[in-house]
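Technical note accompanying the year-one report. For the benefit of new consortium partners, we illustrate the data format agreed upon in the data management plan: each record pairs a sequence with a structure-token string. No post-processing was applied to the example shown here.
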Amino acid sequence: MAENHSLKCNTDDFQEISARNSVEAGDENIILNPRFEDGLNNWSGRGCKILVCESLGNGKVLPLSGKYFASTTGRTQNWNGIQQDITGRFQRTLAYEISAVVRIFGSPAATVVQATLWVQKPNGKEQYIVITRVQATDKEWVQLQGKFLVNSVAAKVVIYLEGPPPGVDILLNTMVVKHAQKIPPSLPPDTENVIYGVSIITNNNLIDGLNGWSPRGSCTLNVGQGAPRILPPMAIDSLASHEPLNGRYILTTNRSQTWMGPSQDITDKLNLFVTYQISAWVRVSSVRNGPQNINVALGVDNQDVNGGQVEAVDDRWYEIGGSFRIEKQPSKVLVYVQGPLAGVDLMVSGLQIFPVDRKARFKYLKKRTDEVHIFKVSSLYEIFSNIHTFL
């Protein structure tokens, strides 16, 4: 259990500390009294008590900066912590960044300290937004940093710290919440070595069996015959160089989870800031249990990116497509097809992922739109001419 704070915290003569706004001029911090120089003004305990301290543990815990820090005491729930109401200073749809110096007291084991936003809407409904978290110990102060943005209208907004097990105290030295700095525009992408319209998928036509492909999970992959031999319509106009489809497809069986399916590692084949288009034919073995969702996705490190999806309502071949762009160098990128219910076989044919020139693509689409518009005008002129002749 946490040590008795009343014996360790120097809380004498707080009334003698001059009451002033602790927000330094120009720093735009919406947290009032961020360094506890004005005692506990503007701060409160969330389900627990809080104290302002100069030291703890017979002087073993001192502030990292300034003279004071706050400490919780009597925490009986993980969500107990220290909080501040920022309703009057918070602006909707504006991005904020938080920077806080935190620590724990009362346990030698490391634990998570989390910054959370509690938002109460005008209709009384509550929303909890996890901002960021950090592993904290009782050995040193650590930095807690993150960003958040709230789009909905809020009647009340409170920011608070929580996370450690009951009996473990949260220490807060300083907290700053201010407008997030605008990210400078990215440098122009290096596209000199990008070959547009050429697929980066290895053995996408399965001429070399299943070389380059691997099962995601414990499912089984085999090569089948009988898929469409034409390119999906979405890829025809963009795919500049390709082999004719030969009707082969990847048959995925023994699927015990919805996420199981064929996959391929494309980490070393991607260029940053380049738009890639995805195209494939997909099919399921059965829709007896209702429509089946089929999804092409990318696992970019620990984040899933949707590359397109389609709902199969019968056992025919469906076109699936989408696009994506990566702007931060990943350590691993895996493309995979997933979605149908466990036990439903999944078939994939002609999966293509290829870079597209967005400017050239826009010009092409505009030209096509203009051609359609001219065709419609010409058709209308021909119709009116025929009517005039008839009259």
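Partners are asked to follow this layout when depositing records. The mean pLDDT is 83.
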